[in-house]
Amino acid sequence: MIAGGPEISDDFVIEAQGRVIGKAGFWRLPEIGYILHPDYWGRGLATEALTAVIDHVMTTRDIDAVTADVDPANAASIRLLTGLGFEQTGAASRTWRVGGVWMDSLYFGLDRDRWKSRKTP
């Protein structure tokens, strides 16, 4: 987060009761990223945080869309993103190496118009 710099990054910590429990934002615009301590999963905090950071970047940056790269096995992240209006835009094999094991990616996107229409009653 610190190394990103404000011209390419817009990242925020997530706090609960004075304790840092995660982060949400854009380490490298326009790709969104997030992590939340497992003790706080299932409480809607990730949805709340991502809604806030997407609103922030859509109003303060001149970008037309945000993207995400998700492990296909991470069903919770896929539900989170699709619940926020992201649509799958592609897939690729062997894109990340984690602990010596190659992982695949699903790619998602959310454009400004879709974000605005999702928020309009």
Description:
The chain is of the alpha+beta class and 121 residues long. It has one domain: 3-Layer(aba) Sandwich (Aminopeptidase). The chain is 27% helix and 43% strand. The protein has 3 helices and 6 strands. The strands form 2 sheets. It has a 3-stranded antiparallel β-sheet, with helices on one face. Strands 4-6-5 form a 3-stranded antiparallel β-sheet. A hairpin with a 2-residue loop joins strand 5 and strand 6. This is N-acetyltransferase domain-containing protein. InterPro entries: Acyl_CoA_acyltransferase, GNAT_dom, N-acetyltransferase. It comes from Brevundimonas intermedia.
Text of the CATH class: Alpha Beta
Number of strands: 6
Based on secondary structure, the structural category is alpha+beta
What number of domains?
A: 1
Strand order of the largest sheet: 1-2-3
The radius of gyration computed from the alpha-carbon positions, rounded to a whole number of angstroms, is 14 Å
Number of helices: 3
Strand content: 35-45%
Q: Please name the CATH architecture.
A: 3-Layer(aba) Sandwich
Helical content class: 25-40%
| Unreliable stretches | none
End-to-end Cα distance: 34 Å
Domain N-acetyltransferase: 1-113
Protein name: N-acetyltransferase domain-containing protein
InterPro entries: Acyl_CoA_acyltransferase (IPR016181), GNAT_dom (IPR000182), N-acetyltransferase (IPR051531)
Organism: Brevundimonas intermedia
